[in-house]
Amino acid sequence: MTTTPREAVGQAYDPALMLRARERSWAVLQGIRERMRPGLSEDEARAEAAAVFEAHGLERLWHPVLIRIGANTTLAFRERSNPDVRLGEDDIYFIDLGLVFHGHEGDVGDTFTTGADPMKRACAEAARTLFGDVAAAWRERGLSGAALYAFATERAQAMGWRLNQDIKGHRVSDFPHAVHKAGDLGTLEQAPSSGLWILEIQIAHPSEPYGAFYEDLLVE
Question: Is the confidence at residue 217, as pLDDT, over 80?
Answer without folding.
Answer: yes
